[in-house]
Design brief:
9% of the residues are buried. The chain has helices spanning 2-24, 45-53, 62-66, 71-91, 102-115, 117-127, 134-137. The chain has seven helices and no strands. It has 147 residues and is an all-alpha fold. The model has no long low-confidence stretch (mean pLDDT 85).
């Protein structure tokens, strides 16, 4: 009889902490596409400011590059990244400077190709491969002065 009560208490504590964290982290703001949300975390402020000065600021929001474009996938990526970012920032377990993970890198590259389909087509024709890595040469795209 002790285990069900203990499980209920633990579930209640987890739910309470999760809701409190969601409230204080302005969790509902992440459901929108407003790029200002990305600077809620201090570590992202420099990236936001660089994006805001780049040519991509006039044509692409953070979600245009960093999430998939199907509605279900978009919110799944946002939820996964929200969980990972929240855990990393809460525990301090992140690399500085912040670095993109392979899963997210693939999403960004797919979005580069989606927006720059003509250029990507010429690149694949020239290289003789279907696999291109835009970020390899364009690290500052979207976040730098030559965005």
């Amino acid at each position: 009889m002790l285990w069900p009560r203990l499980a209920a208490v633990m579930l209640g504590v987890f739910a309470g902490l999760s809701l409190t964290t969601f409230y204080y982290a302005r969790g509902t703001s992440y459901l929108r596409d407003d790029p200002v949300v990305c600077k809620n975390c201090h570590i992202m402020r420099e990236h936001f400011d660089a994006w805001n000065r780049s040519s991509h600021a006039r044509s692409a929001s953070c979600n245009d590059c960093h999430t998939t474009h199907d509605p279900l996938g978009k919110y799944a990526v946002k939820a996964l990244n929200g969980w990972n970012h929240g855990a990393a920032f809460t525990t301090g377990g992140f690399h500085e400077p912040i670095m993109i993970r392979p899963f997210n890198r693939e999403i960004v590259i797919a979005n580069c190709v989606r927006c720059h389909v003509d250029l990507a087509g010429r690149m694949t024709a020239f290289s003789g491969t279907d696999r291109i890595d835009c970020i390899r040469c364009h690290r500052a795209a979207g976040h730098g002065p030559r965005g």
